TrEMBL record:
Species this chain originates from: Microvirga makkahensis
Biased composition (Polar residues): 18-28
Source taxonomy: Bacteria, Pseudomonadati, Pseudomonadota, Alphaproteobacteria, Hyphomicrobiales
GO molecular function: peroxidase activity
Pfam families named among the record's database cross-references: OsmC
Protein name from the UniProt record: OsmC family peroxiredoxin
InterPro entries linked: KH_dom-like_a/b, OsmC/Ohr_fam, OsmC/Ohrsf, OsmC_Ohr_Peroxiredoxin, Peroxiredoxin_OsmC
Region spans: Disordered: 1-28
Protein's GO biological process: response to oxidative stress
Amino acid sequence: MNRKARAVWQGTGKDGSGQLTSDSGVLSSTPYSFKTRFENEKGTNPEELIAAAHAGCFTMALAFQLQGAGFTPTELATEAVVSIEQQGDGFVITKSALTLNADVPGIDRAKFEELARAAEKNCPVSKVLNAEISMNFTLA
């Protein structure tokens, strides 16, 4: 399986701008620029997209872990915060911090943590990130 997205950029790194488009159409000429990445201008940026991918991947992986163990979540809500830091002349994504709020009837905290840690470690986005990954959770 392959998934595709395209980026088109015009201008310099700091003053230029670009658009991101995905084959699914979810991103359709979505703007990104220096200002959307390092300031707060409206648009997206690579780190925000990685955070969304990591939150979505982990949450789905956890749903499969729970299903395999015989549990059906009422809700799994995950926030991912991706950190980018300057190192030398460039920037590095250093962390992805997952915060999960879960409502899973009939599960005890120890079993939930075991399954959540497995999802954190084994979701494909976690495996591709060369960054520190942390996961905290609240179980209703």
